Amino acid sequence: MMTSGKIVEHNINYSSTNIEENDRKFLSNIALRVHNSGLVTPAVFFLEMTKPISSLGGHLLVFLGPVLNSFIQSENYYRRIEVFENRENIELLIKMIEDLENNER
């Protein structure tokens, strides 16, 4: 949720999945950005649609890594790819987005 321009961490426990705390915060930040943008339905639809090919997409991003890193300069680029290669993490992100949307109502 956003209060006075600051992002507030939501208090939903997602400890049932085996994911590192940094990756959980990364996914939580993405969920908050999606929720605050108002694009919840298209984002969830896109994530559900790409879940079956997440591994293939991850391989493509690793292949393009040297080129993309020359433009975006991300220090955790390859770790973020690993997070999205796992379908359980995509499902966790969808759940986080949906929980934020449901808590708002």
Tell me the total number of β-strands.
Answer: 2
Main β sheet profile = 2 strands, antiparallel
What is the N-to-C succession of helices and strands? EEHHHHHH
Low-pLDDT residue spans: 1-11
Strand content: under 5%
Gap between N and C termini: 12 Å
The Rg value, from CA coordinates, equals 14 Å
* Total number of helices: 6
**Sheet with most strands: strand arrangement:** 1-2
Roughly how much helix do the residues carry, as a percent range?
55-70%
Number of domains: 1
Tertiary shape: globular
Q: Give the rounded overall mean pLDDT.
A: 83
Overall SS class: mainly alpha
SSE layout:
Layout: E1 2-3, E2 6-7, H1 21-37, H2 40-50, H3 54-63, H4 65-72, H5 77-85, H6 87-104
Antiparallel strand pairs: 1-2
Helix pairs in contact: 1-6, 2-6, 3-5
List its salient traits.
single chain; 105 residues; mainly alpha; two-stranded antiparallel sheet; 2 strands; 70% helix; globular; disordered N terminus
Describe the structure.
The chain has about 100 residues and is mainly alpha-helical. The protein has one domain. About 70% of the residues lie in helices and about 5% in strands. It has six helices and two strands. It has a two-stranded antiparallel ribbon. A hairpin with a 2-residue loop joins strand 1 and strand 2. Helix 2 packs antiparallel against helix 6 and helix 3 runs antiparallel to helix 5. The longest helix has 18 residues. The protein is globular, with a radius of gyration of 14 Å. The N terminus is likely disordered.
